[in-house]
Design brief:
The chain has helices at residues 17-27, 167-172, 213-218, 472-476; strands at residues 55-57, 62-75, 78-85, 93-96, 101-108, 117-119, 141-147, 155-160, 177-181, 191-200, 224-227, 230-231, 234-238, 243-249, 256-259, 266-270, 273-279, 284-286, 291-296, 302-308, 311-315, 326-329, 332-340, 365-376, 379-384, 396-399, 403-410, 416-420, 426-430, 443-446, 451-457, 463-469, 480-486. By secondary structure, the chain is mainly beta. Bound molecules: CU-O-CU linkage and copper (II) ion (2 copies).
């Protein structure tokens, strides 16, 4: 196989001095490396068998682990390239069940603050639970305790750092892992795999490239798209069997439209919710933070490529100080499915899936929220309702037990993925006319100059948390706000 480096349309190199000084004025990033040298594809590992991170499984209602965030992990076939948890990137896969306690001692051996976020887990946002306001300083440890409710949905989640200002760098550096909540139904699968997709850029010495100001504004997209930290691995399968792939978009900014030509991708879950029935062969488009659980059912031998298509997140237009940059990602091969065996029909798909009954409580409040990028007095700002993130301020105060309808408007020419912690929402409609799935989710793309309308039941878990753009560069630049759910 030939390695396929991902080249980007000039988005890596800082354009004009005007843009540079503009960003320096707002974010103070000028001291950093403004241009990013070309990364080399990790040809040495391309085509290797897919590896899966070690699984740490709960026992008797509890999973108690240490997670150490530190440099020195292997990534894309390069030793010591990445940041890792317990020495690997991705970190271990955590496997728990509804009703379990998940106890994590997070130890920070990085040179900057970090913390831990259990993306979409429906747990308390307070204290030492899924609290995004915590700051774990270098050289210190912190004991998290997540009490997973007995009625918590099963599905595919993930964990990543969430200390405001350092999130994109730490994720791009390799800090992420899968988190599975296990509970029926039993699906007749021969393999149940995690495919955690991330992207990064390595320099010629195999070090992670520092993103420049323009990368941060557009949302950095790495030259290498990796699956479980590997470049274009091979996934083995036998004819007549079914595999479940839990695909996690752990990229900092990249949207992943997925395809597997010659095979059907049958989607059974979006984020951590079963769809009402198996869906295919529709287009699966994962925004950063989204997950799709899919079934693969090969009936003949062959090699099939799992692809991500190009995706256009919009453009800053032709005029102005940003010089009309676009945020298009190039297509890439993620992995190769290698099927062996005589022609054989796999077991049939389940006729229906245990989708949860949709919440039909009356809407008690409506809110309008606006994502914007704009020139302020001091430069380009990434705002929600005209303000950048302030952890001290309550931006939305919500009554526990209420069900709300939120309209998220995007006043900017770039798409932004909206994410709300703790409280999943269902999409009612969007400006692009996307047919809603009717099932709860945690991240949704808000089209450029468009809107989405969401229904959010705040039935449990009082406390303060956040909503933000899941292009994590934008989140770090201030596109995040707080919500206080009062019990
Ligand atoms: Cu996956 Cu607030 O993030
Ligand atoms: Cu999250
Ligand atoms: Cu954004």
């Amino acid at each position: 196989m030939t390695p396929r480096p991902i080249s980007r349309r000039g988005a890596l190199v800082l354009g004009g001095l005007g843009a540079a000084s503009l960003v320096a004025g707002t974010t103070g990033l000028l001291a950093q490396n403004a241009s990013t040298p070309g990364g080399l594809p990790a040809a040495g590992t391309t085509g290797e068998d897919l590896l899966e991170p070690p699984v740490l499984d709960s026992r008797e209602g509890r999973l108690a682990i240490v997670l150490t965030a530190a440099p020195g992990a292997r990534l894309a076939g390069r030793d010591n390239a990445a940041l890792g948890y317990n020495g690997t990137s991705p970190g271990p896969t955590l496997r728990v069940r509804p009703g379990d306690d998940l106890a994590v001692r997070l130890t920070n051996r990085l040179d900057q603050p970090t913390n831990l976020h259990t993306h979409d887990l429906q747990v308390s946002p307070q204290g030492n639970s899924d609290n995004p306001f915590l700051r774990i300083d270098p050289g210190t440890s912190f004991d998290y305790l997540y009490r997973i409710p007995p009625d918590h949905p099963a599905g595919t989640f993930w964990y990543h750092p969430h200390h405001h200002g350092t999130v994109a760098d730490q994720l791009f550096g390799g800090l992420a892992g899968a988190l599975l909540v296990d509970r029926g139904p039993e699906l007749p699968v021969a393999a149940d795999r995690v495919l955690l997709i991330t992207d990064t850029t390595l320099d010629a010495d195999g070090r992670i490239v520092v993103a420049g100001p323009m990368d941060r504004m557009m949302g950095r997209q790495g030259r290498l798209v990796l699956v479980n930290g590997q470049h274009q691995p091979t996934i083995a399968a036998s004819t007549g069997t079914v595999q479940r792939w839990r695909i996690i978009n752990g990229c900092t900014s990249r949207v992943l439209p997925l395809r597997l030509p010659g095979q059907q991708l049958t989607q059974i879950m979006l984020d951590a919710a079963f769809l009402p029935g198996p869906a295919g062969p529709g287009r699966i488009v994962l925004a950063p933070g989204n997950r799709a659980d899919i079934l693969i059912r090969p009936d003949r031998a062959g090699r099939f490529e799992l692809l991500t298509d190009a995706y256009d997140r919009g453009s800053t237009g032709t005029g102005g100080m940003m010089g009309g940059r676009d945020a298009t990602s190039e297509p890439a091969t993620l992995a190769t499915l290698s099927v062996d065996g005589p022609p054989r029909q796999p077991p049939p798909l389940p006729a229906s899936l245990p989708a949860r009954t949709p919440n039909t409580d009356p809407v008690t409040a409506r809110r309008e929220i606006t994502f914007a990028m704009g020139m302020g007095g001091s430069g380009m700002g990434f705002t929600i309702d005209g303000r950048t993130f302030d952890p001290q301020r309550d931006d939305q105060t919500v009554q526990l037990g209420s069900t709300e309808e939120w309209t998220i408007t995007n006043a900017s020419p770039l798409a932004h993925p909206f994410h709300l912690h703790i409280w999943p929402f269902t999409v009612l409609a969007d400006s692009a006319g996307t047919p809603p799935t009717g099932t709860p989710q945690g991240v949704v793309l808000v089209p450029p100059r468009g809107w989405v309308r969401l229904r959010i039941p705040f039935t449990a878990h009082p406390g303060r948390s956040v909503y933000h753009c899941h292009i994590l560069d934008h989140e770090d630049l201030g596109m995040m706000a707080t919500i206080n759910v009062r019990g």
